[in-house]
Amino acid sequence: MDKLAVFSGNAHPQLAKDICKYLKVKLSDALVSRFSEGEIKVKINDNIRGKDVFIVQPTCPPSNENLMELLIMMDALRRASSQRITAVIPYFGYARQDRKDQPRVPITAKLVANLLTTAGASRILTMDLHAGQIQGFFDIPVDHLFSVGVFTDYFNNLSLKDLVVVSPDVGGIKTARAYAKRFGASLAIIDKRRESPEKVEAMHILGTVEGKNAIIVDDLVATGSSLFEGVEALRKAGAKDVYAAIAHGVLSDQAIERLNNCKYLKELVITDSIPLAKDKEHSRIKVLTIANLLGEAIKRIHNEKSVSCLFD
């Protein structure tokens, strides 16, 4: 492991430290600060010539700042003669803009993929992409992990009975089916109609949820509008306790306020792919770590071993 180097930007240094703890290596030293006018200043303080470098940097809010930090760090590492650079992006920002669904709009996910490759990334390690086809936007290897195992372990320890796994929309059926298979649970779908980009009206439930404990599974929760509308719909359909297992807790805008107003959601379970700010901490928000999952993937990539067992 002497050829392995793990760096972190300012997006989520705690996750990088936890990964290093799992790998039993020291977090490599880099200065990532700002010039007086606000431009990003980077200096790599360790010798990384010929090393296999991993940069842990989710592109979470502030997305533009964290993305630019990642790009500039990769450029610095490339010019410092590193052997290989892997961008470890637990939360891949701009993933929701992955197609032209309206006239004259960008495909920003493809643009970000191009930027990462041009900056010097040799491969990408990410988790729970908003759309799986984003892997195809890259011309370099992409290892796409899933947090389903982390959530499965947590909910199995709760020993919940009469489970039903709920997809918040038709597009999430494949993910929900993976959870349902692991839990040995039934499957339901929320049929929703979006009135505007920020407002969703949940219409009705496809499947049986009456008298059951429901777990809504999704890749991210931003404003929470869709999630909490779904919780209300499940309660009206007769569900008992309602939980949510969401990979990326963006929790922007009025998400915490909506959580306070939604008394029927028993627990919102997220991962630490995005750092949870102090002002967003809540008694009904549970954060699970993905440090071991990412650490194992980094170890296998470094040792040129298969990571396919981690894709399940």
TrEMBL record:
<keyword id="KW-0547">Nucleotide-binding</keyword>
<dbReference type="GO" id="GO:0000287">
    <property type="term" value="F:magnesium ion binding"/>
</dbReference>
<comment type="similarity">
    <text>Belongs to the ribose-phosphate pyrophosphokinase family. Class I subfamily.</text>
</comment>
<feature type="binding site">
    <location>
        <position position="218"/>
    </location>
    <ligand>
        <name>D-ribose 5-phosphate</name>
    </ligand>
</feature>
<protein>
    <recommendedName>
        <fullName>Ribose-phosphate pyrophosphokinase</fullName>
        <ecNumber>2.7.6.1</ecNumber>
    </recommendedName>
</protein>
<keyword id="KW-0808">Transferase</keyword>
<keyword id="KW-0963">Cytoplasm</keyword>
<comment type="subunit">
    <text>Homohexamer.</text>
</comment>
<feature type="binding site">
    <location>
        <begin position="96"/>
        <end position="97"/>
    </location>
    <ligand>
        <name>ATP</name>
    </ligand>
</feature>
<feature type="active site">
    <location>
        <position position="192"/>
    </location>
</feature>
<comment type="pathway">
    <text>Metabolic intermediate biosynthesis; 5-phospho-alpha-D-ribose 1-diphosphate biosynthesis; 5-phospho-alpha-D-ribose 1-diphosphate from D-ribose 5-phosphate (route I): step 1/1.</text>
</comment>
<dbReference type="GO" id="GO:0009156">
    <property type="term" value="P:ribonucleoside monophosphate biosynthetic process"/>
</dbReference>
<dbReference type="GO" id="GO:0006015">
    <property type="term" value="P:5-phosphoribose 1-diphosphate biosynthetic process"/>
</dbReference>
<dbReference type="InterPro" id="IPR000836">
    <property type="entry name" value="PRTase_dom"/>
</dbReference>
<dbReference type="GO" id="GO:0005737">
    <property type="term" value="C:cytoplasm"/>
</dbReference>
<dbReference type="InterPro" id="IPR029057">
    <property type="entry name" value="PRTase-like"/>
</dbReference>
<feature type="domain" description="Ribose-phosphate pyrophosphokinase N-terminal">
    <location>
        <begin position="5"/>
        <end position="120"/>
    </location>
</feature>
<keyword id="KW-0479">Metal-binding</keyword>
<dbReference type="GO" id="GO:0005524">
    <property type="term" value="F:ATP binding"/>
</dbReference>
<keyword id="KW-0460">Magnesium</keyword>
<feature type="binding site">
    <location>
        <position position="130"/>
    </location>
    <ligand>
        <name>Mg(2+)</name>
    </ligand>
</feature>
<feature type="binding site">
    <location>
        <position position="194"/>
    </location>
    <ligand>
        <name>D-ribose 5-phosphate</name>
    </ligand>
</feature>
<dbReference type="Pfam" id="PF13793">
    <property type="entry name" value="Pribosyltran_N"/>
</dbReference>
<keyword id="KW-0067">ATP-binding</keyword>
<dbReference type="InterPro" id="IPR037515">
    <property type="entry name" value="Rib-P_diPkinase_bac"/>
</dbReference>
<dbReference type="InterPro" id="IPR029099">
    <property type="entry name" value="Pribosyltran_N"/>
</dbReference>
<keyword id="KW-0545">Nucleotide biosynthesis</keyword>
<keyword id="KW-0418">Kinase</keyword>
<dbReference type="Pfam" id="PF14572">
    <property type="entry name" value="Pribosyl_synth"/>
</dbReference>
<dbReference type="InterPro" id="IPR000842">
    <property type="entry name" value="PRib_PP_synth_CS"/>
</dbReference>
<dbReference type="GO" id="GO:0002189">
    <property type="term" value="C:ribose phosphate diphosphokinase complex"/>
</dbReference>
<comment type="function">
    <text>Involved in the biosynthesis of the central metabolite phospho-alpha-D-ribosyl-1-pyrophosphate (PRPP) via the transfer of pyrophosphoryl group from ATP to 1-hydroxyl of ribose-5-phosphate (Rib-5-P).</text>
</comment>
<dbReference type="GO" id="GO:0016301">
    <property type="term" value="F:kinase activity"/>
</dbReference>
<dbReference type="GO" id="GO:0004749">
    <property type="term" value="F:ribose phosphate diphosphokinase activity"/>
</dbReference>
<dbReference type="InterPro" id="IPR005946">
    <property type="entry name" value="Rib-P_diPkinase"/>
</dbReference>
<feature type="binding site">
    <location>
        <position position="169"/>
    </location>
    <ligand>
        <name>Mg(2+)</name>
    </ligand>
</feature>
<dbReference type="GO" id="GO:0006164">
    <property type="term" value="P:purine nucleotide biosynthetic process"/>
</dbReference>
